[in-house]
Structure formats: structure tokens, C-alpha cells
Amino acid sequence: MKLLLLLCFVVLSQNKETPDCDKNMDFHEETGYGYDTICKSLSNANINLLEDIVISNEYSLVIQDSVLEGFNSSLFGNIANIKKLEIVNSKFTMEGKDMVFEKLKLLKQLSVRQTKFQASAKTFFGLASLRELELDGNDLDYVEVGAFGSIEDLRVLKITNNHLKHIRDLPLCEIKNLNILNLKKNLIPTLKYYSFSCNKHRETIGLSLNDDKLDVGIRGETYMNTSETFTNIVSVNFNYNKITEIGFALADLKGLRDLEFEGNLLEIIRADSFEPLNKIEKLNFKNNRIRIIEDQVLFNKPYLTKLNLAGNQISRINLNSTTSLEYLNLANNKLVLASLSILSNLKSLKELIISDNHISEVLPNEFRNFTSLVKLDVSGNKLVLRDESFSDLYSLLDLNLSRNSIKTLPSHVFQQSLQLKSIDLSHNVIYKFPELVFSNLTDLETLNLSYNKIVSLPYVLFKNLVNLNVLDVAGNRLKSLQYDLMIDNLPSLSLINFKHNSLSCQFLSKIISFIKKKNISYTITEKFQYDKENVEGISCEEEDDDPPKGDIKPHPLKSESSGTSTWAVLLIVGAVMGVLGFGTFKLAMFVRRRRYTNDQFELIHS
Known about the structure:
Layout: H1 2-17, E1 20-28, E2 32-40, H2 50-53, E3 58-64, E4 67-71, E5 84-88, E6 91-94, E7 109-113, E8 132-136, E9 156-160, E10 180-182, E11 205-210, E12 213-218, E13 235-237, E14 258-260, E15 268-269, E16 282-284, E17 292-293, E18 306-308, E19 327-329, E20 351-353, E21 375-377, E22 398-400, E23 422-424, E24 446-448, E25 470-472, H3 483-488, E26 495-497, H4 505-517, E27 521-522, E28 534-535, E29 538-539, H5 556-605
Parallel strand pairs: 2-3, 3-5, 4-6, 5-7, 7-8, 8-9, 9-10, 10-13, 13-14, 14-16, 15-17, 16-18, 18-19, 19-20, 20-21, 21-22, 22-23, 23-24, 24-25, 25-26, 26-27
Antiparallel strand pairs: 1-2, 11-12, 28-29
């Protein structure tokens, strides 16, 4: 019996130590079909089983939620054919500073994430084929010199969500052909005293600000290349650091096309920081504190097509030379009416976002040169519209006018934007529309009129909207709809939203029954969200003149006056009763006193 129990314990222990692995066959462009394997719960006790799981035509291996301590290069000795390795959310410690990946000669992509991983000088030795390296969320504050020395052909380096404070803490000069550098979510405070350049005749010198003190550090011997080392870099990402200044750090990145500085602490963008970047295509400075952009910053940028400056404090900017721009985001800044003149030369612009500024009016012909504009977002301003506000926007497909406190629409405001497919007028204060305002928009597919103060929607308003697919009139003051005539004019309608209005329950039932027969969907809200009546989840109001039996309710407009009258009557009755009671009391006292006097009189005479 004891022997049987011991055998059961051994079997259970072996099952517990078996790694949890899933294997899937997939097609990969470089190698054709191969297996992708994900293994969880690997440990020192079961790591030897890995070679039985990963076979010769394996493409990728993911090691997840594992505990691997004190291992060496023999770990990957029998899986040398894999092309992609990911180590995620694991405890991953090496034996000394061994070259743990040296046998993965064919590995092209290595990702180590959330593992408290530290990169020593020998960590990546032997990865001659590696093209992409990601070190994310490992609390790295530096990488030892020599770490990248044997991966000279690395093209993509991502050291994100770590604790880097200085770029000099990365031996970047060891990488000859780097194309993409991503340092997002670190603690870099400034680039002012750093330069992306290397000198093969001397050691790497890094200069940076550390607690307001200039720090000159010599990092030791490196694998030096020429000063042309960084000319192949096309993309750099500094998003969500703490950068306050850029300086001349980018001067040697002459091939740079994509530059990201989102979520930093920049206040001034100086022209000399960007002067050499004449091949730049995309610039992102979203969510900084930018007040000033010097006039020459965007000068001689013939390939710049995308510029994101949203979430800053910009009131003016010189865009006269950026004629190639196709995407411009200036949302959540301090632009006013006069600022729109800066846009006059942007003839190639396809998408313009100027929402949440201080624009009060769009003057006639303001966008007359934007013949290529496809999307325009001016939401969150205080617009007053005119008939010519959007004149000459012949290519416009998507127009967002929400949150503008618009009260009325001019009859011909859309007359030159006949290609429009989507209009958003939600969250304004419109109560009615000119009958012909949408009449020529035969290509319109989505119309959002929700959360205004609309009291009626004549069916003629939708007469020519033959391609309208989605209609949203939720959150208004509608008490009735010519729903049959309206829907008959909308042959392409597939979804309508009319919740949060003032429709009676009886009327709402008729609408729902009608649109169900037309196979049209409608937006509902679950019944438990409402204390009042609803029909299939859409709130409604009971008819005042036909209340349900046993539940007769006073008219809401009369309830207050009725309550006041009741209280007045009660007060009067109370006063009368008080007077009567007091009079009765006095009378009783008088009678009693009289009787007492008579008794005394009779007693004396007797």
C-alpha cells in the first residue's frame, strides 16, 4: 500500500512539472510553414523537456509566466533553429554573465518583457542573425558596453518602459545598421547635450544633465564605427519621457523620417534642432507644453506629410512652407479665428483636426484651397456657421461639428460638399432644421443629430438621403415622428437610435413594430437602468390623458399647485378649529364660574 501511494505521488509530481505548451502551425513569409509554440510554467525542474516539445521546423517560441534561475547557454542548445523567441513575465536570471543565447545562430527576433532582465556585455553574444531586439519593462537603467558588439546588423532596437535617464547609457555606436530606435516610456530628461555621432579614434563620451549638474561620462572602450553610424536610422521614438529640451541631438540623423516626442515636457521648438532633417515625413509632438514653434522649424521639409501638435498651448504657427502636408492635428490648443489663416497654403491636406480650440466663426471661403480635404473636425469650438463656411470642399467625406453650441444651420451650408458621407452635429443646441439643408447629400451614410433640442423632424428633411445607413436622433425632445414617411424615404437605413426622447410608450410601440417589419435595427438601453416606463429597453412616457387603471397620477404641471392648495386648506381648517376650540374653552370656563357663583349665592341665603 505504501509503495502504491509513493508511485502515485511520483506520477502526480511529474505531471505538475510538465510545462504547459500550445503548438500551432502557421505560414511565415521568410520560412514558409512552421510551428509557433507558447510554453507556460517552465522551471529548472522541467526545462529539459523543452527539446522534446520544440522540433526542427519550429519558427517561434514564447516562454511565459515561468521561473528560470541560474541557467546557462545549454538552455537553448537543442532549439537552435527557432527564428523568434519571446520571454514574457518570467523570473529570468543567468548564471554569472554567461552568453545564454550564443547557440541561437538563426534567431532574428528576440523579445524580453517584464522579467527584471539585465543586459551584460556578453548577453547577446552569438546572435549574428538578430534583426530585432525588444527589452520592455525590465527596470533597465543602463546597458553594458559591448552588449551590442556581436549584433552589428541589428535593425530594430526597442528599450521601452524602463528606467533609462541618459542615452549615453546605451552603447548605440556598436550597431552599424540601426533603422528604428524606440526609447518610449523611460526617464530621459533632456537631449540638449547629446549627439547621435560616433568617433572611431576615441572612447564614447556622453554628456547629459543630472540634477541640474553637467555630467561628463566616459563609458569605456566600445566597438567604434565611423560618424556615419546613424545615417540609416529612419525612426526614433522618445514618447513619454521627461524631455524638456532637444538641442542639437538630432543633427546627425540625416535619414530620419519618423520622429516621436509625444507626452514630454517641451515648451519651445527651436529651428536649429530640426534644420538638418530635410527627409522627415512624420512629426509627433502631441501632449507637451508647447507655446512657441519658431518660424523656420518646418522650413525645407518637402516630404513632411503628417504633423501632430494636439494637446499643447499653441496660438500661432507658420505653415507656409509645408505644402506637402496631408495630415494636421492641432486639437486642444489655443487657436482663434485669425489663426486659421495659417492653413491657407495647405493644398495637399486630406485630414484636418482643429477641435477644442477657441474658434468662434468660420468665415466664407476660409477653406477655399482645401480641394483635397477628406476629413474635417472642428468639434468643441463655438462656431457660428454661414452658407459659405465650407465652400469649395469638393472632396470632403467626413465633417464633425459636434459640441459647438450651434443653434441654427444655414440652408445652404452643405451645398458645395456633395460627396459627404458622414456628418456629426451632436451635442449642440439645435431645435429645428431648414427643410432643404440635407437635400443634396445623396451620398450621406451617417447622420448624427443626437443630444440637441430638436422637437420635430419633418420627413421632407430626409427626402433625398437614399444612401443613409445610420441615423442618430437620441437625447432630443421629440414627442412624435412621421416615422412611416421618414423611413420610406430612407431605403438604405439599417440602424436608428431614438432613445432618451419624450416619446409616449404607446407611440414608441408603434415605431418599434414598424421598423422591425423593415428589418431596421435600433439602439436600446436595458430596462434596469430606468425607473420609469420603457418599451423594449427604450424609455418612454405614459399618456397623460389615459393613465393605467389603479395608478392615476396627477398632472405634473398641476401637482405643485395642488399641493399648495391642500396645504392652504389645511392651514385654514386648523386656524378655524383652533378658534373654535379656544372659544369652547372660554365658554366652558364662563359657565363653570357662573355655576360656582350661583352655588355660593344660594349657600349664603340659606
